[in-house]
Amino acid sequence: MQRAGARVAHRGRLAACLIILGLVAAALPVSGNPSTEGKVSPVPPEDLPLPRRDSGYVSSDACVECHQNEHASWHASSHRTMTQVATPESVLGEFDGAEIDSDGVTYRVFTRDGECWAEMPDPDLVMDFVQQRGRYEMMKKIPRVERRVIMTTGSHHYQTYWVAGDDEYGRLMQTLPLVYLIKDQRWIPREKAFMRPPGGRFLTQWNHHCIKCHSTGGGPGLIDEGQRGRFETKVAELGISCKACHGPGEDHIAYQRRIVAKQPPAGADPIVNPAKLDHKRGSQVCGQCHAVFIAANEKSVTEYATSGSSYRPGDEIHQTNYYIQQPANGGTSMRRAEFDRNKEFFRERWWDDGSILAGGREFTAVRRSACYLKGEMSCMSCHSIHDSDPADQLTRDLTDTRMCTQCHSDPRDTSRLSDHTHHAPGSSGSNCLNCHMPYNSYALLSGVRSHQMESPRVSASVEFDTPNACNLCHLDQTFAWA
Fold first, then answer.
1. With the CA atoms of 26, 449, 286 and 319 taken in that order, what torsion angle do they form, in degrees rounded to the nearest 10?
2. Rounded Cα–Cα distance for residues 361 and 368 (Å)
3. Residue spans of beta strands (DSSP E) within 50-194
4. How far apart (Å, rounded) are the C-alpha atoms in residues 50 and 237?
5. DSSP 3-state assignment of 276?
6. pLDDT at 432 over 80
7. Which of 16, 186, 317, 332 has the most CB atoms within 10 Å of its CB?
8. pLDDT score, position 15
């Protein structure tokens, strides 16, 4: 395999990936990795995204001066640790010389001078190989290299890792296609952690894919230099920080400093509090990540490829994002055409009845709920970053039926609940969530609650083999019984 030819193919693939992805698109206690203790040299700055300080972005450290409690609650959350520079404190995987086999391709993870490394098939050539749809068994012939781990993603249930790409492509971060299961303390191939058909590698690059939802203010920074593309990627912050929900903070800080200096500023404070937006705009703040979407138009694609999404909290997100829905029960002709062209794409994310199969798409599900469409329910009705458990951000003291009785306060939903549920008060069958938000979605190797919020539909189980709330509890009964 010739390196020069690979570079040309790689440049075309980078641009193609950007276009395709633009158009289709209490945390567990964290302890350092014992195999990386000791003096560790920092990750070279040239391997990491550049800090972004344009568009009014400031560091989350700037918020501590006035918002100590809010900063502390955010700092303890899994949002903050979504993406981190690889350090002994952030790396949870055991880089102890283990060899992980993935369908005959071996990856070795080890520590050198306190740094985490991987011996692997050259990731740049692997991506070229995948793009050219080469035969899988040929991957074993790709030259092996050693690459230092420079970034981590995840810290809740599992963690995955990124290595520096070839210098020819700038600040390119290639996947180490492994996942470390934190609770089980073991490695698995990355593709085994996702709901995908067997076979094939699950390979990607952080710069144009994961950057969208695993960093704040990320801009891929794709530069087309004729024969190849380079990434000059920038982020306002790794992980999901204050600015992701409240907007860039520079003008807010200036506004408040003028007040402190007794220099009344003009206009209103530009900072955004999602809880004070209407229920749709507030939920859109979460929907910038927790959804299945593509760029809304060509302008959005171009912006994304270079400087990232132009959406800011409080904006109308449909100006920049087009939200994909599975066209169950008919749908528009355009939705049906999308489905016919990309059936496997849909079946990795939705059940055939149109309900969400894969987690992380909660806003996509909420948008189909009557509570959202006909009521005023928002994500903030149940979730909070600053007054919640750090794991799932469920608002403290707002559990089970109390989430629902905020709005559903009729006696049949409260004092006479068993008339509604046909189950004993206090039983699992009288828990609103078990019937209207059953565990029929999949994420992070576990079942998660559906956010579509609808009544159990046995008819969907009969027609589409979709799980229903009744039979998820009554495993010994048939659909006919339900």
1. 170
2. 12
3. 50-51, 83-85, 99-102, 105-112, 115-121, 144-153, 158-164, 173-181, 186-189
4. 10
5. helix
6. yes
7. 317
8. 37
CB atoms within 10 A of CB 240: 22
Which residues are CB-contacts of 324 (< 8 A; sequence separation ≥ 6)? 25, 292, 293, 294, 338, 364
Q: Residues 6 or more apart from 332 whose CB is under 8 A from it?
A: none
Q: Are 195 and 448 in contact (CB under 8 A)?
A: no
- Contact status, residue 357 vs residue 448, Cβ threshold 8 Å: no
Phi, psi (deg, nearest 5) at residue 142: -70, 135
CB 116 within 8 A of CB 95: yes
If you compute the radius of gyration of the chain from its CA atoms, what whole number of angstroms results?
24
Residue 268, class by beta-carbon neighbours within 10 Å (0-12 exposed, 13-18 middle, 19+ buried)? Answer: exposed
Alpha-carbon gap, residue 43 to 305, rounded angstroms = 25
pTM: 0.87
Residue 173: per-residue pLDDT: 92
Tokens of 78: 């899994």
Alpha-carbon torsion angle 404, 473, 195, 370, nearest 10: -30
Rounded CA separation 80/77 (Å): 6
465 burial (CB, 10 Å; 0-12 / 13-18 / 19+) is exposed
Q: Are 322 and 338 contacting, i.e. CB atoms less than 8 angstroms apart?
A: no
Task: Report the pLDDT averaged over residues 221-233.
Answer: 76
Say yes or no to pLDDT of 155 above 80: yes
| Residues 416-423: contacts with CB under 8 Å, at least 24 apart | none
Quick one: pLDDT at residue 224?
A: 75
* pLDDT interval class at 199 (50, 70, 90): low
**Residue-wise DSSP of 444-458:** TTEEE--SS-----H
Q: Which two tokens stand for residue 431?
A: 């828990």
For 191-250, the DSSP string reads GGGSS--SSS----BIIIIIHHHHEES-B--EEE-SSSEEE--EESEESS-HHHHH---H
**Structure token digits, residue 17:** 């990936």
Report the range of poorest mean pLDDT among 6-20, 79-93, 425-439: 6-20
From 145, 162, 170, 303, select the one nearest 228 (Cα to Cα): 170
Provide the pLDDT for residue 194.
Answer: 83
Of 454, 445, 413, the C-alpha closest to 430 is 413
Tokens of 400: 């089970």
Q: Which of 151, 154, 32, 176 is nearest to 82 (CA)?
A: 154
